[in-house]
Specification:
The protein is α/β, with parallel strands linked by helices and 497 residues long. It has three domains: 155 residues, Leucine-rich Repeat Variant; 87 residues, no CATH class; 237 residues, Rossmann fold, CATH 3.40.50.410. It has 21 helices and nine strands. The strands form two sheets. Strands 3, 4, 5, 6, 7, 8 and 9 form a seven-stranded mixed sheet that branches. A two-stranded antiparallel sheet has the order 1-2. The longest helix is centred in the first third of the chain and has 19 residues. The protein starts with a helix and ends with a helix.
Length: 497
């Protein structure tokens, strides 16, 4: 505390009037919040995080000094430290860069996840030191720091790092290989497209194939499906049109598995968890236009559409179709949630897909699961993040799931972060950046459109808004799209008139 006060006082002789005004406002904030409220031992970590967020209004050296010396260096609460690092990453001064370097270099003896978040902070600065640190992060042994380095390179658009990122296409860890492919697409590394394509066609990891497909689509400006076999003709075209043979021969895939369809999302990963809403509204009726469904191509129809009576029927029919198509090497699990959650299997381990486990999963979905209560989204996601292939989730982060498919028809109304959608979004972002967990989202009926779309956006996933036939009374997302609501009302009046 004393360091921060002396730091503030030392500023006054040298700063212009505007800076002194900012410094005075910070001193008042500091006295009211950090000297008076922060020391209270009864303050929860959530309350401390809320206090820290107010620091974003005080981008001055004294604020950076206090955050580093009194929060990052001394706090043991993970969410508090993460919040302080995030606040620091938004500050502009050289003091912030120094603070981030101390975090990154490990002088404060913080765990890899905090170092990873410290690395992400360098994406905010255009200074040379920022680029140096990102480059060092790409060479780290801990995959969390490497993943954060790749995310920082993507966000900062550091084209000069293209070659360093390209080397990671052959990294031993699948999540790093996949993230490197996506990063190269963001850096517009067209010259590395053949190497990325080989990952897409031949990598043993299904998750890497998915990531490489995302990168190939972006670099080639082609929207073909996640199926290497479907791209063979395109590959041959490129190879034929180029002298020198950089493309080489077609890298025939051993198992060219396309993504399994789920509400139109191509789901593909090595360890996938389906997080399904079982709140009361999931038993509400779901209208299906049987005539229209029959006229669609088979692959575009609602699975077993004639049996769909409720929202829950709709979801389980889609899921059974998805499970039937997913390759047997993939591991899966279920989390069913309302105001509480249950896991299947209940031992926290994923099931390797086989004919036997597919039957067991389908039977569990058909069992008399009571649809009741409200929605605790954070607790359900935490349960999914906690599933392991083996070991401890925080230490062996790469043994947990790499893909979550999240389905809900509601809003976050129960649980720890029910009133903090911003914090819930940040948790999804954090796990995506430091553990590589992608979240695909299917929103049904009048769900929280903004939050669900953000889950997918910040984690690199896809978002689908499931539409109901002839839903004129409440067309899904009008509550969240005022302009669309206005247009809808005008169209309805015009139809009546």
């Amino acid at each position: 505390m004393r360091i921060a006060r002396l730091f503030v006082l030392a500023l006054h002789g040298a700063l212009p009037a505007a800076a002194q005004d900012a410094d005075q406002r910070y001193k008042e904030f500091f006295a009211d919040n950090m000297q008076f409220r922060w020391p209270n031992p009864e303050l929860t970590s959530e309350e401390r995080v809320i206090l820290l967020r107010n620091f974003t209004k005080h981008d001055i050296p004294a604020a950076a000094e206090w955050l580093l010396t009194e929060v990052v260096a001394k706090s043991d609460a993970g969410d508090v430290v993460r919040e302080a690092v995030k606040v620091l990453s938004g500050f502009k001064g050289p003091e912030t860069l120094t603070a981030m370097q101390q975090i990154w270099e490990g002088k404060l003896k913080k765990p890899p996840e905090v170092r990873a978040l410290g690395t992400l902070a360098f994406s905010k600065t255009q200074q040379v030191e920022g680029g140096n640190v990102i480059g060092q992060a790409l060479k780290e042994k801990d995959e969390r720091v490497v993943l954060a380095g790749l995310a920082a390179a993507r966000e900062s658009r550091r084209i000069a790092m293209k070659d360093e990122v390209g080397k990671l296409l052959s990294h031993k860890h699948p999540l790093v290989r996949g993230a490197a492919a996506i990063t190269l697409a963001e850096l517009k590394a067209d010259d590395l497209l053949p190497q990325i394509f080989r990952l897409f066609a031949t990598d043993p990891s299904y998750r890497v194939r998915y990531d490489a497909w995302v990168a190939v689509k972006k670099l080639s400006l082609n929207e073909m499906p996640c199926d290497p076999a479907a791209w063979e003709a395109w590959w041959q075209q490129q190879a034929a049109g180029e002298e020198g043979g950089a493309w080489g021969t077609w890298p025939k895939a051993k198992d060219p598995s396309p993504g399994a369809p789920f509400f139109g999302i191509p789901v593909l990963g090595d360890r996938i968890i389906f997080v399904l809403d079982i709140s009361q509204d999931m038993d509400n009726p779901w209208m299906v236009d049987h005539k229209a469904e029959r006229e669609k191509p088979k692959e575009e129809q609602i699975p077993n559409f004639f049996s769909v009576k409720t929202r829950w029927n709709l979801v389980t029919n889609h899921l059974k179709q998805c499970l039937a198509v997913l390759p047997e090497k993939i591991e899966v699990a279920l989390v069913l949630f309302n105001h509480q959650f249950t896991c299947y299997p209940d031992n926290g381990r994923l099931l390797k897909l086989s004919s036997k486990t597919r039957e067991a999963l389908a039977a569990h979905l058909d069992a008399s699961v009571e649809r009741s209560g409200s929605t605790a989204m954070y607790e359900a996601l935490k349960a999914a993040w906690g599933f392991l292939k083996g070991g401890n989730a925080e230490i062996n982060f790469d043994k947990g799931c790499d893909t979550i498919v999240f389905v809900t028809d509601g809003q976050s109304l129960a649980g720890e972060l029910s009133k903090r959608p911003d914090r819930l979004r940040d948790e999804v972002w954090r796990v995506a950046q430091t553990r590589g967990v992608r979240v695909h989202v299917v929103g049904i009926h009048n769900h929280d459109f903004d939050l669900c779309r953000e889950f997918a956006k910040v984690s690199g996933g896809l978002y689908v808004h499931a539409q109901q036939h002839d839903d004129t009374a409440e067309p899904q997302d009008l509550e969240f799209w005022p302009k669309k609501k206005k247009a809808f009302e005008e169209a309805r009046k015009s139809k009546r008139g």
